Amino acid sequence: MSVKEPRASSFQQQLSQQPPAAGKPPTPGTLARLGDFVDFSMQAIKGIRRIGPFAAETVRQAAIIAAGSALVIMLLTFLAGNACGLEASAITRQLGADPAGPFFASFCTTREIVPIIFGYILAAKVGCGLVAELGSMQVSEEVDALDTMAINSVVYLVSTRLVACLFVLPIMYFLALATGYIGAWYGSLIRFADVSQGLWEFGFYTALPPVDLLYSVTKGFVIAFAVLLIALYYGYRVRGGPVEVGNATARSMLVSMAVVTILNMIGTVVFWGFDPGLPIA
What we know:
Elements lengths: L9 H8 L12 H17 L8 H40 L6 H39 L2 H7 L4 H40 L4 H10 L3 H27 L5 H31 L9
Helix pairs in contact: 2-6, 3-4, 3-6, 4-6, 4-7, 4-8, 4-9, 6-8, 8-9
């Protein structure tokens, strides 16, 4: 005897007649994301001309960035410069060329260590903070509220922070160079004491022409500008909930680290790759 199948209810019949749910929109490709980043960057740069009414917000952001990042940058560049001084003196000591230690310490801190450490700290401390702040504002719909009140959110949230960072970070970069030099001096002269103070200063500053300082500051400025734009882009483009804020912060950190490394390498090749500028006859 066959068992009769139960008849489907009218509700189940309606469900079976509904069209299948639409799938998720396709994820933008690399070129699409790059184009969106360029468009966003152009909007942020153009918005700098319109931050006049938000001068107080710009100054407030500059104070927050300086107070929260200056000591971290100075401490880590001091340690990095110290490592340069130690390695330079240790290697030249083994070769019997103690007076050459300050030369290598000068090259190391000015050309490589300070710019790349500055970029990494900026990406980790300032960049992640910007992504988390702007992302949280997107999730809580504060950005939409600004647009509803006819306030350009890109100008108020992005351009003001960009100007604040560009105003503060050059000063912080010079502080990073100074603490890096102090660290190199402490690591090589105080730790090994292979040469006199006068000979160390002579070797260090002989290998430090003014053009090297200009190149180093230029490299640091380009790196800082790129890191800031990346962080502001990922923070402003957050969509979803708190999980997406964390994902955007992680992606921003990864991209910023890669960009810092690439820009540092390009700067080294452009500025010193064809003429290292060694003060050796």
